[in-house]
Design a protein that fits this description.
heterotrimer, A mainly alpha (324), B mainly alpha (289), C alpha/beta (256), B: 289 residues, two-stranded antiparallel ribbon, disordered C terminus, C: alpha/beta, six-stranded mixed beta sheet
């Protein structure tokens, strides 16, 4: 796509997002769209570190770290939400740096296990440190963001589950989409793909794989932290059960089903995994059989995910047009 | 009184260790042959438990016949899984791991659909207790400990000494040179996976009289078994045995002393170990590509 | 002028000595060949110099600075660039994409540069594309620029591997068995390609099985056997060295 086309389509997409609440007025559907957005932020963060070939099972833990940090900063330290939002992202990113730098030296199954262990440690700490994290009961009554007021002009407040939350999330999503898209298209992102394919060759061309992997991991966890902060104040309640191994698996499934090669795959994956449970509403505990089947079908028949398959199909179509 | 409590803890720690060891034997076998972490292993263990519940608890067959039935069933189920899912993905370790996740999810929910959610008790095997000083152990527990030890030993012997075992080892070490020696690597991989599934089922079946059987019974032990496998050194059976004991004892003691938070120690140990000695206790260096 | 100096280098693998107290020098603008039978430690030596393995003892000095046990990417940044024996590259990407990655050290590839693609970043990265095409033309690969690498024939992939090493603008180019597994025609093309690179005044270190190629290309040759240097000299001297002939006795096929 040429540059003007790109700008045009992004404006169009943005307009759709901005005007969506006028079309979808049912708060229940708005809730779904918000879930979709949170999934998108978390899964696209996970995809970053997957682009160097590493799979983290701690994404939910960093989401939780963001959520708890924000709740505690606002409720116990008296910070404004507008300060605690970026701070939660930074706290998540900082912990990711401390954990990631030594751990990213480990590859494949070793990295799975160490991130899984970190996730479990975080969950056990949330569950057991009752004074700070509220134990199994979690933290409830998390206040809404402070209203934004410009005296004499306007004032925006955030009633529970309101459309204002939706616009706040759109802002966060646009930010994360921008960052992820730029990384994907840049030389930096291409070098990451090179590390995944042949790390020794990449190193012999001067690519520092530790540096690249660490940056990706930290950026991914920064957005997980932001998503966590938003989630805490939107839900007004958080508990350790939300940030378990199984949530990390869910984000991984989003990436696999949508396709890890492109940020658009993550959009597709988030949409599918938000809508799918709606169809299995009566039998919640059975939905994972559908997830499982989905994962297997995608892995066996569309190795680069749904987005990868769509891309291939469109390429085939343009080829067949060429030879007509 | 003190020695009695200590004795009781030791007995429970041994039991816990054996559960972990039995689970990790199959996991480490799959890893060494297929270079893949099998996330469905906990569900295969659960299927073993459920098979024994139905064959022994419901149909009234002999317990050992029930276990044998579970072993045979799961061996063939393993061959099937390998053929339709893991063989097409054998060149992509990440995809195979993710596929095993998918398999695990389907098996767990499938079991939920067929058998329901509630926990079921498998009738006890033998009655009575065994007195060792001031510590009393139920005969059932003792029997299960002995059987688990026997299974562990025979598996290690099987891999080290039998012809099939040596062929499996050759495949695990270097598939290319194994196939140059005329070994049918594809078939042996399938057999290895079948054996690992049978092992998972054995573990579930053996343990079933001591725990409740349910579709979720494999979820927690398998996380711990991953730790044991890595701690012992990926692909090493002897390492897995040592690591199983280390984790079982550390966990049982810390759970007794600290309560629920005690679970944290296993995870912290593995994190520290991975950072300083990623090969584990007995592992070889290997490159993941 | 000495470019690379290897001093008393040793490498043990669990008691087995793969390289044993090896010392040699590579002079500026020379082509040095390292030969030896299978298992002589040639590839180990390569991996030690490029940082993919850590030496047990000894030191490696490049342009007067000690680079022993530095990380591979740091060594590449100092100007030692190697190729690999396997013809694998970044196989799922196109020829052009492979080359552009190889310009990593020249590209503006930092994290913030990527986020805010300023005009200067764009012009720098665009000029790299022109350079990449230039290199492809030099190697006669310009027609394949948009092909996926895994679909290229073996010989082309090896040339592309060398092209990528050249793109990293090496002070010392290390070639690991450049003609391994090639048919006679491909071998000839590769030999003339290395000759062309040499005319540009590059310093080259070659590890190779194939005696004929080494003899025709190199200024100087070192012969390894069981991790020890058994001979060093000009091709003519090596050809008549009795110890070398002994080491290669019954290994006629290396002379192909």
């Amino acid at each position: 796509m040429s540059r003007p086309w790109k700008i045009l389509t992004s404006f169009f997409a943005l307009a759709v997002l901005v005007f969506l609440p006028w079309v979808i007025t049912d708060p229940r559907y708005r809730d779904l769209i918000i879930t979709m957005g949170i999934y998108f932020m978390l899964a696209s963060g996970l995809r970053l570190v997957m682009s160097v070939g590493q799979v983290s099972f701690a994404q939910a833990a960093f989401w939780g770290i963001g959520a708890y940090s924000s709740a505690i900063l606002v409720m116990k330290a008296g910070f404004s939400f507008w300060l605690s939002l970026p701070l939660s992202g930074i706290i998540s990113a900082f912990i990711a740096l401390i954990i990631g730098y030594p751990c990213l030296r480990l590859k494949g199954p070793y990295f799975f296990i160490i991130t899984m262990s970190f996730g479990e440690v975080a969950r056990l700490i949330f569950t057991s440190w009752i004074d700070l994290f509220g134990g199994t009961n979690g933290i409830s009554g998390i206040p809404a963001p402070d209203p934004i007021t410009i005296p004499g002009l306007f004032s925006i407040s955030f009633p529970p589950r309101s459309v204002e939350f939706y616009y706040l999330l759109i802002l966060l999503i646009v930010l994360s989409f921008f960052v992820m898209y730029r990384i994907e298209k840049s030389h930096f992102g291409k070098a990451c793909g090179a590390i995944r394919e042949f790390d020794d060759l990449a190193a012999s061309l001067g690519i520092n794989s530790m540096r690249h992997s660490t940056i990706l991991f930290v950026v991914g966890c920064f957005f997980a932290g932001l998503a966590g902060s938003f989630y805490a104040h939107y839900m007004t309640y958080i508990g350790p059960g939300y940030f378990s191994f199984h949530e990390s698996l869910l984000f991984l499934i989003i990436v696999v089903i949508g396709g890890s090669e492109s940020i658009f795959g993550i959009i597709i994956g988030s949409v599918i995994l938000t809508i799918l449970p709606e169809f299995t509403r009566e039998a919640r505990q059975f939905e994972s059989i559908i997830y499982g089947a989905f994962v297997l079908l995608v892995l066996l028949f569309m190795p680069s995910g749904i987005w990868g398959m769509l891309k291939k199909l469109s390429r085939l179509k343009s080829l067949s047009r060429l030879y007509k | 009184m003190k020695t009695q409590i200590l004795g009781q803890i030791l007995v429970y720690a041994t039991m816990l260790s054996l559960v972990y060891i039995l689970m990790s034997l199959g996991l480490t076998l799959v890893f060494s042959i297929m270079r893949m972490i099998n996330f469905a292993h906990g569900e295969l263990y659960m299927l073993g438990g459920l098979s024994v519940y139905y064959l022994y608890g419901q149909l009234g067959l002999n317990y050992w016949v029930g276990i044998l039935g579970a072993i045979v069933l799961m061996f063939f189920f393993g061959l099937l899984l390998e053929r339709i899912i893991f063989r097409p993905l054998r060149h992509d370790m990440l995809a195979a791991c993710l596929a095993s996740l998918g398999v695990g999810m389907m098996l767990q929910t499938g079991a939920l659909l067929l058998f329901g959610e509630e926990e079921k008790a498998v009738p006890s095997l033998v009655k009575g207790t065994f007195q060792l000083g001031s510590v009393s152990i139920s005969n059932e527990r003792l029997l299960i400990v002995l059987v688990s030890v026997a299974i562990t030993f025979s598996l290690i012997l099987f891999i080290k000494k039998s012809k099939t075992g040596q062929v499996l080892q050759a495949v695990a070490q270097n598939p290319e040179s194994a196939s140059l020696q005329g070994i049918n690597v594809t078939r042996m991989t399938a057999v290895g996976f079948g054996i690992a599934c049978a092992l998972a089922a054995t573990a579930g079946g053996i343990i079933s009289p001591l725990v409740y059987v349910s579709p979720y019974m494999g979820v927690e032990p398998v996380l711990k078994a991953f730790i044991v496998v890595i701690m012992g050194g990926l692909g090493s059976l002897v390492g897995a045995v040592i690591a199983g004991f280390v984790l079982g004892f550390v966990e049982q003691f810390s759970l007794t002393i600290f309560g629920f938070v005690g679970h944290i120690f296993g995870f912290i140990i593995i994190m520290v170990l991975l950072l300083f000695r990623p090969r584990g206790f007995m592992g070889r260096d290997f490159k993941v590509h | 002028m000495i470019l690379l100096e290897i001093k008393e280098l040793s490498k043990n693998f669990g008691g087995l000595e793969a390289i044993s107290r090896l010392s040699f020098e590579v002079a500026h603008k020379e082509i040095l060949g390292i030969i030896g039978p299978n298992g002589a430690g040639k590839t180990t030596l390569f991996n030690l110099i490029s940082g993919h393995l850590k030496p047990s003892r000894g030191s490696i000095i490049f342009r007067g600075e000690d680079i022993t046990a530095e990380k591979p990417h740091a060594i590449a940044r100092r100007g030692i660039v190697r190729t690999f024996q396997s013809s694998n590259l970044f196989d799922s990407k196109t020829v052009m994409e492979n080359l552009l990655i190889a310009f990593h050290m020249e590209a503006r590839s930092g994290f913030w540069d990527s986020l805010f693609e300023t005009r200067s970043v764009r012009t720098i990265n665009e000029s790299l594309a022109e350079k990449a095409i230039e290199i492809l033309r030099f190697l006669g690969l310009e027609k394949t620029r948009d092909e996926t690498v895994k679909n290229l024939p073996h010989g082309h992939r090896r040339s592309l591997g060398i092209a990528m090493a050249l793109a990293a603008s090496p002070g010392l180019l290390m070639l690991d068995e450049p003609v391994g597994g090639m048919n006679p025609r491909e071998k000839e093309e590769m030999t003339s390609l290395i000759g062309k690179i040499r005319q540009q005044g590059k310093t080259i270190l070659i590890v190779e099985h194939n005696m004929r190629v080494v003899m025709s290309l190199c200024d100087r040759i070192i012969v390894l056997n069981f991790g020890n240097k058994i001979a060093e000299g000009t091709p003519a001297e090596i050809r008549n060295n009795p110890e070398v002939i002994m080491a290669y006795l019954g290994r006629k096929h290396y002379a192909d």
